[in-house]
Amino acid sequence: MDSIYQLCFSILFLVISYRIFKKLTIRLPPGPCPRPIVGNFYDIKLHKFECFNRWVQHYGPIFSVWFGSSLNVVISNSELAREVFKENDQQLADRCRSRSIAKFSKSGKGLLWADYEPHYVKVKNICVVELFSPKRLEALRPIREDEVTAMVESIFKDCTNPVNRSKSLVVRKYLEAATFNNITRLVFGKRFEGVDGVMSEQGLEIKATLANRLELIESESKAVWEHIRWLRWLFPLDSKAFAKHVARRDALTLQIMKEHSLAHQKSGETVKQSFIDALVTLQEKYDLSDDTITSILWEMVIMGMDTIATSVEWAMAELIKDSRLQKKAQIEMDQVIGSDRIITEWDFSNLPYLRCIAKEALRLHPPTPFLLPHRASSQVKLGGYDIPKDSNVHVNISAIARDPAVWKNPLEFRPERFMEEDVDMKGHDYRLLPFGAGRRVCPGAQYGLNLVTSMLGHLLHHYNWTPADGLMPEDIDMEDSMELVAQMRTPLQAIVAPRLPDHLYKRVAVDL
User: Fold this and answer.
1) Rounded distance, CA 117 to CA 120, Å?
2) Which of 185, 357, 460, 468 is the most buried (most CB within 10 A)?
3) pLDDT tens sequence across 127-176
4) What is the per-residue DSSP string for 392-411?
5) Burial class (CB in 10 A: 0-12, 13-18, 19+), 41
6) Which residues bind heme (predicted)?
7) Residue 442 marked ligand-binding
């Protein structure tokens, strides 16, 4: 019996000794001193991302912070970004899924939350080759232009209404409506908002499902035990609430899929323009499960919904603050397009300054200041420090895009900088990463960029924009919400004045 106790004690001693040895020999990045068990969880006095920005000033471009038992490494310059996305890309291509994200994504059945495994490679290939191919982007162009002109028409009706004359409009309202209609038509192949502006039951259900998802995630993320693995079993998730949400989402998706199937049977044609049509048609070819199709569809909705409207709102705020830039863009469009027709995406190649405005907005105000965290599948080195397996690596693309070491006057909104130097922003230049880079680069980058540029072009070509009544340009609130999607803290308001003939404010409706 004594020998058994001695053996157990020896094994325990060896395990503890090994763990201590590993901690003493590993060289972690600097960071705030963690407390036992909870780590730095309670050092987050305001918002997590605001604390990250404060700590980078104190600890430098790479630091580590513990949330419970999870090690998080934050990097904030382009050299370290290169190490993440080029030198250690494969080892840092996995995802960290919280329990709620695991429920929503069905343990990574889609693209966004899948680990870097054969499933991810297959789904990413489908997105690149099938969903976001140049051919499909062009085929869907009429829908983008339809919804952007619908936005222009809606603004025109409101700003010319005698009741609203000389009154400011809330810009975000129109941007969010245009984005919702664009993304849902892209994904589900139908318009949920009628010509009278009334949302259908399915459209309301989509919005309610998205709101419910956010509510469930926020309730979980604020709990310290979610970050302490060995404590999670004491605090189980509300399984009924998550099961209800997933069932509600899947039922809505199945309902829309059946509608498309019936329409195709009646017409005898296989239409593949929208994502839902394409994925159902390709299901057998790529051996896609229903869970994978549902996950992909909703990930596209979630990622596109807020980010596009946020980017355009920030750009418009900067142009209203500096009327000189607004006028310069309008002069370019007047010279290229004139006042007898409206802008189309085919005009972009002849509008370099407009493209620079879109790029500068994504640099100075990336809609997601931090990319989704990458999880280390094995131990790697970043900046000379050891990053253990299962650590989460956060890339602060906002800090990188405002780094004075690589950008001249980084806090100034100056589109001209991209006429002086053409900087790639699709993952090849690590100074500018609004769409990520490496194996995890966003496959829909070109679609998002086209839509942002189109919305900006129409808003500037059709209207003159000035600050809300009684507000000076310098008084516009340019603080952000410090959330995962960094919206303007105060929704932008502006006085809008048409500048083209009335007949150019009609929606150019199409039905593919």
Assistant:
1) 5
2) 357
3) 999 999 999 999 999 999 999 999 999 999 999 999 887 789 999 999 99
4) EEEEBHHHHHT-TTTSSSTT
5) buried
6) 442
7) yes
